[in-house]
Design a protein that fits this description.
The complex is a heterodimer of chains A (109) and B (180). Helix content of chain A is 77%, strand content 0%. Chain A has 109 residues and is mainly α. Chain B has helices spanning 2-22, 26-46, 50-75, 91-112, 114-119, 134-146, 148-169. The longest helix of chain B is centred in the middle third of the chain and has 26 residues, at 50-75. Chain B is extended and about 80 Å long. Chain B starts with a helix and ends in an 11-residue tail after the last helix. The relative contact order of chain B is 0.07. The chains are: A mainly alpha (109), B mainly alpha (180).
């Protein structure tokens, strides 16, 4: 009984895509709700990972390695983005310690 | 077995993601992010993307999250954020509505196009025992073949990012006037 159930319900591409949508939604809520710029960055990473997950699922389904190549480039760009973003946050925090995103909304010192 | 892996990894991903959003301490949020990233790595293995799973663990969990933790410690912002007070009352309900809308719309689109997705393609060539590293070979043919220009451009991007960050965070030294 258990084994037939397990073999009947094999996760298809649709499952992975729905999981990716849920992860993307949670990341969106995080970016909109949190006020700490570091945690907002982490939520952006969540959204990037959701997109990567769907790319890999499509690469498997369509038999095209190009999806995995795209994920590779997304990871490189995410690393560069984190480096620049954290540099900006460090230079802002040095001027005004403990600032949240409301304090720096004017985009000037 | 495949179902079991999916359920466990999905639970890791969702628990970690919710942890990032709701934990008020930035260090706890970063640790929850690691849980999510490992879950995504497991999903990559389940989808025949073995090289990307390794890169995910090394680059994301190894480098990016460590960078986050390093900045948290460096800036001394490792104190609990006040999640109770909300200066803009409508923001949280609106954000939840937007999030649920995104999830609902994308899920509806995915479910509606279910048959189209499942009827196309034959699936990626799975690595068998005779050729266990076919995923890496396929990926390298793609990166260094079709997409080699994009690969070179990313190296330029990384150099620009590094130089820009050094310029951004450099302290301008006060000009020392010589005592004359």
């Amino acid at each position: 009984m258990m084994s037939t159930l397990m073999s009947a319900a094999t996760p298809t591409t649709t499952w992975y895509l729905v999981l990716s949508a849920v992860l993307f939604g949670i990341g969106t809520v995080g970016v909109l709700v949190r006020r700490n710029p570091l945690v907002m960055f982490m939520c952006i990473e969540l959204m990037l990972n959701a997109v990567n997950l769907s790319f890999v699922a499509f690469a498997k389904r369509l038999g095209d390695i190009g999806g995995q190549t795209t994920v590779f480039f997304v990871m490189v760009v995410a690393a560069a983005e984190v480096v620049v973003g954290l540099g900006i946050i460090v230079s802002i925090m040095r001027k005004r310690p403990g600032a949240n995103v409301d304090d720096i909304s004017a985009l000037k010192g | 077995m495949e179902l079991f892996v999916f359920v466990v990894a999905a639970a890791m991903i969702l628990a970690g993601a919710i942890g990032v959003v709701v934990r008020s301490h930035p260090v706890h949020a970063a640790l929850s992010l690691i849980l999510t990233l490992f879950g995504v790595a497991v999903m990559f293995v389940a989808q025949e993307a073995h090289f990307l799973a390794a890169v995910q663990v090394i680059v994301y969990a190894g480098a990016i999250v460590v960078l986050f933790l390093f900045v948290i410690m460096l800036l001394g912002v490792d104190r609990t954020e006040d999640m109770k007070t909300e200066p803009f009352k409508v923001q949280r309900p609106l954000a939840v509505i937007v999030g649920l809308g995104v999830i609902g719309l994308v899920t509806a689109a995915v479910v509606a196009s279910r048959d189209v997705v499942s009827s196309r393609g034959s699936g990626l060539v799975t690595p068998d025992m005779a050729d266990p590293d076919s995923n890496i070979r396929q990926l390298s043919r793609s990166v260094f073949g079709n997409y080699v220009v994009a690969f070179e451009v990313t190296s330029v991007l990384l150099v620009v990012a590094v130089v820009g960050t050094v310029l951004l965070t450099r302290r301008v030294k006060p000009v020392v006037k010589e005592a004359s």
